[in-house]
Design a protein that fits this description.
Low-confidence stretches: none
Radius of gyration: 23 Å
Number of helices: 3
Shape: elongated
Number of domains: 1
Strand content: under 5%
Structural class: mainly alpha
Helix content: over 70%
Mean pLDDT: 80
Largest sheet: none
Length: about 90
């Protein structure tokens, strides 16, 4: 039992310092979050355009719908990529 506790404590001693975030990583994470916020705003704009089209009775052509959908998917993909860059 004492050996198990010792092994757990030693593994924590080596793991916890590795989990610490450096100031550079924190700055990078803040910048990434700012970029993500911008992407979310763009996505909201696309959703708002689609919503306004439905509510106001504006008929979007198939090409306009496809373009809006393509832009939305591209922005969403970039948002996911930014998320994956976070430390």
């Amino acid at each position: 039992m004492k050996k198990l506790i010792l092994v757990v404590l030693l593994s924590l001693a080596f793991t916890i310092p590795c989990m610490a975030i450096t100031p550079e990583q924190l700055e990078q994470a803040e910048e990434t979050l700012r970029q993500m916020d911008g992407k979310i705003s763009v996505l909201r704009g696309y959703v708002q355009q689609a919503y306004n089209g439905v509510v106001e009775g504006i008929t979007l052509t198939i090409e306009q719908k496809q373009e809006l959908k393509s832009k939305y998917i591209a922005e969403k993909s970039e948002l996911v990529n930014l998320y994956n860059q976070l430390p």
